[in-house]
Amino acid sequence: MPDRIEQAKRALRADLRERRQTLSAHAREVAEAGVTQQLDALVERLGARSISCFLSTPTEPGTHAFVAGAVARGIRVLLPISRDDGLLDWSVATPDAEIAEGLFGMPEPVGDVLGPIAVNDVDLLIIPAAAVDRTGMRLGWGRGYYDKTLGSMERCPPVYAVVFDTEFVDDVPRDVHDQPVTGVVTPTRTLAISAHTA
User: Which residues bind ATP (predicted)?
Assistant: First the structure.
């Protein structure tokens, strides 16, 4: 049974990855502007003063403009740093932070490193995803970093996954360790998932 779930996940990830790679530069710019607007409104609505967010890769819905804007407005933003043991360290975003390629080629900050428990202090988590379904189940990219992080938090604040509009789907394959999200942010809308409403 787990093998069948893993095969279904791999097939869906491959399809989503291919679709992301075919997006034009213009489509990516439009998506980043939309995501920035949606995330700004979400942070404002929730009154979040301390958040975590990821730095997007070139094929993901863009988050760099949002992070820069949030930092400029005085919001504390924690950025993830991948570790070999499957956990995430965190670093506080600064206006002039140096960004380098981390594990798996992900953009990650270079600077003072806070341990995995630093994320327990945030008011909102903004995380990457390959897809999210209507029940709030998230399909990640298969490394388990965010499932481990969410599963280990003492008091989990709202968790919103950022995807393209076409990646909010009816159903994703799920396994026992997969963690749901509170809502989804796309370039055109922000949706709270009713079972986990913020």
Answer: 9-13, 138-146
160 is in an annotated binding site: no
- Distances in whole angstroms, Cα of residue 46 to Cα of each of 159, 160, 181, 197: 12, 12, 16, 12
Instruction: Output the pLDDT for position 6.
Output: 85
pLDDT band at 146 (very low <50, low <70, confident <90, very high): very high
Q: Is 70 annotated as a binding residue?
A: no
Compute the residue count for the chain. Answer: 198
Does 124 carry a binding-site annotation? no
- pLDDT at site 196: 45
The domain total for the chain is 1
- 39 in a known ligand binding site: no
Structural domain of 171? 2-196
Q: Is 90 annotated as a binding residue?
A: no
The arithmetic mean of pLDDT across residues 35-43, rounded, is 98
pTM, two decimals, is 0.92
User: What's the CATH number where 63 sits?
Assistant: 3.40.50.10420
On whether 6 is known to bind a ligand per the annotation, the reply is no
